[in-house]
Structure formats: structure tokens, C-alpha cells
Amino acid sequence: MWREIVFWLCAAGSVITGVAVFRVDSMARATFALLASFLFAAGTVLLADLTYLGVLVILMMIMEMVIMVVFMLMYMMNPAGLMPMTMVHNQKGALAIAIGTFAVLATGIYLIDWPTSSAPQPEDPTMALGEALMGPKMLMMIVLGLALFATIVATVVLATHRGRYERYGDRLDRDRPDDPVRGGVGR
Questions:
Q1: How far apart are CA 103 and CA 93, in angstroms?
Q2: With contact defined as beta carbons under 8 Å apart, do 40 and 11 qualify?
Q3: Which stretch, 59-63, 98-102, 117-121, has highest mean pLDDT?
Q4: 184 near 177, Cβ under 8 Å?
Q5: Quick one: CA dihedral 38, 40, 45, 50, positive or negative?
Q6: Distance between the two ends of the chain, CA-based, in angstroms?
Q7: Does the N-terminal or the C-terminal CB of the chain have fewer CB atoms within 10 Å?
Q8: 38: burial class by Cβ within 10 Å (0-12, 13-18, 19+)?
Q9: Concatenated DSSP letters for 93-124?
């Protein structure tokens, strides 16, 4: 019973925030509305007991949207992406395409003979999905994921302006650091 209630809350939340993407008047607000819509959609994935996939969607969408906001704030002439602007161009054409696409998909739901299966459901759907997608290459994908994570961390570390020990120069054994700012540690 509670799953149905949560499902309908997530479904309604996803639709409402999806509509908000096109109703708000700034890029930053639209980005966060899109993030909320994706998080609600991930909630429905979690309700299907696909925990790994649901958490993956949540993490990916959060990082993707936050990165998008950061770049938007850095490169837009519109300060902070918060100034009013039109988020939809060619409204009549977009509406016609959206209605046409919806009509085709809704018609397809009723005209297609959906397959049925007599196979029993797996006890752990996440494990079954992982085995179906990766098969014997799961260990390699885990190692690859760790290598990518290490690459991201190394890139961030190398991109920082000052390191923790930069004040000591080449001689890390000296007692006092050579701080460029008066009043630093050790003075």
C-alpha cells in the first residue's frame, strides 16, 4: 500500500517539476527543477527494488546538474543564470511536436502486443540486472570505475592553485614556512 502512495507522489512530483522546467524564467531554476524531476523518477526506480540503478541515477543526476549550474554561472552573460529569460522558443512548433509525439506513443501503448513471461522473478533484481548487463566483466567494470574516480581526484588535486606544503618550498624539513601572507602559521 505504501509503495503505491510513494509511487504516485513520485510520479506527480516528476511531472510537476518537469513542467516547472519550462515555466520558470531562469536557467538556474530550470536546472534545479530538472534535477528534482530526475530525482522523483529515480524514486520510482528504487520502488522497483533496483537499488543500485536508483542510487546510480540519483548520483549521476545530482553531479550532472550541479556541474551544469557551475558552468552556467561561469560562462553565461546572464549573472548567475537568475535573470528572467524565455526558456521555450518556437512555442507553437514545440507544442505541435509534443502533442504529436504523445499521440504516437499513447497509440503505441494500445496497439502493440506486449510480451508476457512465465519465468519466475529473481530474488534480487539488481543482481540479475547487473549480471545481464555485465556478465563476467563486472570485476573489470568495478576496477575501471575506481580508475576513473582516481583520475578525477588526481585532476582536481593537480588543478588546485596551492598545495598544502607549497609554503615550505623544496625543504619540507624547515621549521617555519615561507608564507606569502603575513601572520601565517609558524610566525
A1: 15
A2: yes
A3: 98-102
A4: yes
A5: positive
A6: 66
A7: N
A8: buried
A9: HHHHHHHHHHHHHHHHHHHS------SPPPS-
Distance CA 175, CA 59 (A): 44
CA distances from 61 to 31, 39, 40, 114 (A): 11, 8, 11, 30
Q: Any idea of the CA torsion for 12, 16, 19, 23, to the nearest 10 degrees?
A: 170
Q: Which amino acid is at 66?
A: V
C-alpha cell at 146: 575506481
pLDDT band, residue 5 (cuts 50/70/90):
very high
